[in-house]
Predict the 3D structure of the following.
Amino acid sequence: MRDDYPVPDYVPMAATGLTDAERWPLLTDGGRVMLDRLRNHPHAPHYNHACGDRLTAASLGRLKSYKDTLQDGYHGWTSTQEPPWVDELIERVYSTVPRYRRRSRPARLTEVPTIGRHDLLSQADQHVPDDADLSDLIIYNTSGSRGAAARVPMSAEFSALDLPVIEHVLAGFGVVFSGGPSQVSLVNVYSQPVAYQFASVMSYLDGAGLVKINLHPDGWTRPEDRVSFLDDLAPEVYTGNPISLSALAELPLKHQPKAVLSGAMTLSDTVRRRLAERFRCPVVDLYGITESGLIAWRDHDVHRIVPRRLYVEILDEAGRRCEPGVAGEITVTCGENPMLPLLRYRTGDHAALDWRYGPVLVGLDGRAPVVFRGADGVTVNSIEVTHILSPLGLVAWQLHQGSDGALSLSVHETGAPDPDTIATALTSLMGNLPLKVTLENLARDAKPQRYTSDLT
């Protein structure tokens, strides 16, 4: 077993499931040169994984056409009308998906029962259509940030769908990929004890380089190799979560990217501004889930929903639709993953739906709000805690209230003020409760859960 690999009892690269020709059916001579450069770079990290896009000419053509449909900016639905493709998706799912085909087809979407992560955990195979091309099947293991981890089936084409969506979002910030086999277009950064590290190329961007790295020093021959490697690659765009991007900002990098994309965790305005000042480029906050792909991006005080064939409902605990502006659980309907068409999938995340030149999510803050008890016995919503702590510039935190009412707050150490300053801010909201504040490295959790309580 290697301690630098996230799967126990697995020896990295000991058994290769695919050849390079199978990983990249469209690999060009230029792409091969880029791949060799990344693999054999003198300052490269300790790669422990191999991954290709598996795109065919047909799938690449569909992805290029998909990008054109996004430029229209048409969602196909309004605050009072579902998109026209919903009925067709319901018919297809109830005809071909094992979980549904033994049931009567509902007349409308609101009669379709909702599903959630537990359904994928217990019977993922029952959600794969009978007519799906299993030769194109990919199984993605989620991180479990919204509960227990799940195995999500998808196709290679769907896995690459984020690329045209990212292009669409970045275009709104005046950012365009150069691409091509001489350019590294994307570097995905992690900063945690163990993580996958691999080099790849993207057929969608004409052979441009893609690297996934872990900034933890244990993943490199020498800590200084991180800067040498990244500055030499000069990537167009960095992607990561607020913890890993904050760690990236601490490195003495000279290269300036075109943009930085943040996802997986809530990005505070303070941290976003700090990253924007450090890298001197747009910092874009993305929201999405593995099961359906990217859903929205941050535009000032709201998250604009991507104009995909994706429909969003906001439901209360009883499964009823919330009125515009009323917060509830984000529930998605999407048929773009041929291995996992979704009807009313509860994401576990919460926000309100509103309309500002199209559908937007308001107050998106991840998981369901947690209710705490203040010193005077009054309930305090976790959203109020977020409002108090966010201005302090904290990258990430975990607040827990024990059964005795005592509070423990763990704060990610990078860029954090002293514990007394943090304690003063939280006490101003919660009152004089027993409180312990610690600064530590929260990167040990891929996506730290912000709020928990033994009182709820």
